[in-house]
Each structure stands twice: as C-alpha cells, then as structure tokens.
Amino acid sequence: MKRKQFKSAVATAFGRHKTKGGSSSSAGKSSRKGDTFRKARSHDSARSQLLLRLNAQKKRLARATEKLDASDKLGHVQVHIEACKIFEAPARDGIEFAEEERLWHLRKIVENSEDHPEASEWRSELVIALLAAGEVKDARMVLQDSDTRSATGLAYSAALLAFIDAHKSVTETREDVDASGDTAASKEQSSDSDESSADVVALLQRDDSLSKSLRTAIGVNPYVADILSTLGTFTAITAPQQIDGARNIDRGVEYAGSVEEALAYIADAGMMWADRPGMEDWVAHGISQHGTKTSSCDPRSSFAKPRYKKLFVDNVAQAKKLRSGKSISTDPEE
C-alpha cells in the first residue's frame, strides 16, 4: 500500500475522512470516538512512562542504600528523605506505586531518625500517610510513641482518631438505648436527624479526654482548627491550587504554628476530616472553650506571606458566613 493510501485508510478508520461535501455525521461521531481513544492511549502511555521512571528511581535509590555502611544511619535517612521527595508528587496524584514507595521510605526514616532534628515532622508525615492508606492500627502505634505536642500533624491526627473513637462509642450507645427503649419514642427521636446529631455533638463536647486532645491540637496550631470548624464550606470556596504552594515553602523555625503550616495540613489531611457528622460543631466548640479566636487574631505576620495570610483570613470569614446561611460569592478564584 502506498503511503498516501495508507494515510487515507487511517484517516477513514478514525473518522477523519471527508467526502466532497464535507464530513458526514457518522464520520463526525467516529472522529469523536477516535479523539477519545487517542487521549486514553496518550494517557496510558504517559502513565506507563511515569511508572518506568519511578521504578528506575527506586532501583537507583536501592543501589545508593547498598553502598552505605549499615551503621551509617544518617546516610540511610538522607536517601530515604530523597526518596520521599521523589515519590511525593505522584503519590498525591494517586499513583499507587508511588504511594506505597513513599510510605515505605517514611517508615524507614522514622525507624532511623530518633535523634534527627526533624524527627517529629517525619513522624507527622508518616501518621498522615498511614491514615490515608487506611492503616489506622499502625498510625495509633506511631502516635503512642510520639509527643503529639511536637508537630501539627501528630496533634491533629491524635485529635481525629479520638473524635472517631468517641463518635463511634456515643452513636453505638444511643443505638443500644433506642433498641431497648419504647419503640414509638425511638421512632419519634430518629425522625429528627438534626436533633439527634446535635445530641451526639453535645455528648462529644462533654468528653474530657476528647476535649483534651483537641485543646492540645489547637495549642500547637490554632489556624488548623479555624479551618476545620468550617471545613465543608472552606474547601468549597478554596481552589486546591491556592493552597498547594504552602506545602513547598521553606520551613524555618517560624513555620511551626503558622498559617502556611495550617494550609499545608489541610491540603494533605483535610479529606480525612471531611464528611464526619458533628465534626465542625465539635471543633468550633473546642475553639470557644480554648479561648482562642483564631480568625480575628493576627496570623504570624513575621512568617505568614501576604498571599496566604489574606487567603486564610478572607476564606475563613467567607466560609463562616456561608455556613451561617448568609448569601455571598462562592467563586474560589476570587
């Protein structure tokens, strides 16, 4: 087959062949199907290429580790830190291979970095990654061996697990009471879900150990709590790209407890707090009990960059107005 004939055949197969009068409707449909096929094939090809590059990096890192003396803990930690940085972006994009590799390297960092100045931060990263992977038991074990006051991720992960446990206990207790009580009364109570939810929140607010875990977290970084207290509306009006940059800024001494750290935590772990009935009210109550009005206080101006400071103050205020039922703009790009 001549080259010109071959190109014509390919064009016909993918719906790009035109008649003298222009493209037919069937040709148009074939063209759209062809475009979809090519996009899918291109996506699969790009994904395959990415996996090949990541696997090559895995082998390179393994060779680098093999060259190190077994007693060189610091050297091993540096290789694992490099690995975490390599696999971080694709892991966030949902590449399972990258997620598994990053989690494995985080475990190794924590195992070998007890005396490392950033040990708490790496423990924090590990706990968040474990919770995201559904490995709750392992996350609890890391938290048990950690000072939760030493890092925002540790403090809020501990508070999250405490909330989940307490919420489960309270709702199970209520279900047992309803099951053993008067059927008519039980039906009447369950007919008003909002009232039932409010009752659960009230019980959670009276849980001293649960309140303590939240108070600890607020003490470490109050700005995270302010976002969590209105998380649903905050994420609805805040475009992901607006806070992604907070993950990548230089983390100096003043980073701990800052607005940037709060935004980075929400970007990494906010999804684990989302859609939990009563959570926002519980956090809001904790803020009021703690005596810290974070949205009205001045975020650490010595560290907070103007764009993140403005984003935090404006979007938290806007989210609270939305949550209270007031009608305002919800354009995340504004």
Describe this structure in words.
The chain has helices at residues 3-13, 25-66, 73-92, 96-112, 119-132, 136-144, 152-180, 183-190, 193-205, 208-220, 222-228, 231-237, 240-244, 259-273, 279-290, 306-323. It is globular. Residues 2-24, 183-193 and 326-334 have low confidence and may be disordered. It is mainly α and 334 residues long. It contains 16 helices and no strands. 72% of the residues lie in helices and 0% in strands. Helix 7 (152-180) packs across helix 9, helix 10 crosses helix 11 and helix 12 crosses helix 16 (306-323). 31% of the residues are buried.
Fold topology:
Layout: H1 3-13, H2 25-66, H3 73-92, H4 96-112, H5 119-132, H6 136-144, H7 152-180, H8 183-190, H9 193-205, H10 208-220, H11 222-228, H12 231-237, H13 240-244, H14 259-273, H15 279-290, H16 306-323
Number of helices: 16
Shape field: globular
In terms of DSSP E residues, the strand content is under 5%
**Cα separation of the termini:** 58 Å
Series of H and E elements: HHHHHHHHHHHHHHHH
Low-confidence segments, given as residue ranges, are: 2-24, 183-193, 326-334
Structural class determined from secondary elements: mainly alpha
The largest β sheet comes out as: none
Q: Determine the mean pLDDT.
A: 77
**Rg measurement, Å:** 26 Å
Number of strands: 0
Helix content: over 70%
Keywords, please?
334 residues, globular, mainly alpha, single chain, disordered N terminus, disordered C terminus
Can you give me a brief rundown of this structure?
With 334 residues, the protein is an all-alpha fold.
